DNA sequence: CCTATCCGTTAACCCAGGTTAATAAATTAC
DNA sequence: GTAATTTATTAACCTGGGTTAACGGATAGG
């Protein structure tokens, strides 16, 4: 029984004991080394994941080969490229493990079964999507309203724990600037 | 009976005739003049709308009072600040009618009733949210990967019809630059 | 312990968009 | 049809991040 997973789902809907068992059985445990990919850009994201342990980053690759880190997920969070997962389109992002990571995975078809089989399954699907939607919108808002300097401050505020788990160039990429520029920002802030 | 509305919903789920009637009855018709607000920043978005006729723009207001246009919706599209609507939080965007506009409105509670009362109601809630999610993600992607010039070209491509319905400064705001800069972009492209 | 590699900072120069203000064009009002 | 207002363009100057390359510190491997 995947307790962390069941606990997270239980934040959204009520589950009977039988349903907890049934759900646990749909998830397969996958282990990844640092640097391994959960998903590569261009692939269809066929499984949704729940991070049992570890840390992943999402990035897009520009035409010139540069990659831009757009998000992070850590233990006790769900991970997948939801847009690709939903409509079986090629993913526009890669998801890479940047620590040794354990992910519980469920296939698209099994998740659809979950929506049907579990009493409040459809509601869970709706709520999880609504949750992800709100996150996505906040992201848009951040990009629209904030300067790189503010985004850096916000990153420090929101992910204080990740600062020590991440190399600086992932942070600069997340903030939307190049490493030299993040250095300048840090210098400005230090005064 | 609101036929346009029912048609749109029928793209997502099957509806019985009785359900079509029932749904139609939950929506109230509201009319707006050019410049009127469907929603103001800071208010909670308590109704979801379906635009029968007209055109609205979404904008956020920065601390310095400047507003940034983040999206448009036109006839036959749903409109609301979904994040605010979902969790009753103050909206971070305003929605303003920029043409005389007719909107069919349903309250939050009635929509929850719809999820329960209509056979495939929960599924509709999930699918509409998944649809909005994919749109939001595309928006993030656009901001991340594209320069203002590319966003302008994409705007021309995606909303050719809106070019003539919108003043230029809404377009420049949507593209993410100031009017003088959009002029420079247009000049560059003209050569 | 020394070397090679990686990473973060710094400097110099470049460029796109911001800012401000003036002007021209297009709408709207009367 | 003319005046008033709003909107679009242009010019001059400013600013912050990009680019490239050099340097220094840290880390890892031998």
UniProtKB/TrEMBL annotation, chains A, B:
One of its GO terms (molecular function) is kinase activity. CDD domains: CAP_ED. Pfam families: cNMP_binding. Residues 11-114 form the Cyclic nucleotide-binding domain. The keyword Transferase applies. Keywords: Kinase, Transferase. This is cAMP-binding domain of CRP or a regulatory subunit of cAMP-dependent protein kinases. It comes from Chitinophaga terrae (ex Kim and Jung 2007).
């Amino acid at each position: 029984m995947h307790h962390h997973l069941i606990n997270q789902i239980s934040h959204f809907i009520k589950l009977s004991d039988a349903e907890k068992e049934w759900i646990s059985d749909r998830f397969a445990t996958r282990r990844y080394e640092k640097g391994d990919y959960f998903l590569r850009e261009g692939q269809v994201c066929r499984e949704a994941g729940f991070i049992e342990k570890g840390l992943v980053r999402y990035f897009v690759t520009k035409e010139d080969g540069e990659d831009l880190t757009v998000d992070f997920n850590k233990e006790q969070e769900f991970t997948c490229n939801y847009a690709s997962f939903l409509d079986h389109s090629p993913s526009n992002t890669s998801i890479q493990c940047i620590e040794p990571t354990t992910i519980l995975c469920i296939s698209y078809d099994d998740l659809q079964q979950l929506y049907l089989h579990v009493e409040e399954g459809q509601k869970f699907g709706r709520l999880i999507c609504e949750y992800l939607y709100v996150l996505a919108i906040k992201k848009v808002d951040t990009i629209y309203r904030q300067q790189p300097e503010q985004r850096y401050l916000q990153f420090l505020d929101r992910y204080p724990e990740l600062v020590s788990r991440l190399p600086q160039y992932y942070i600069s990429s997340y903030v939307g600037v190049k490493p030299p520029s993040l250095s300048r920002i840090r210098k400005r802030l230090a005064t």
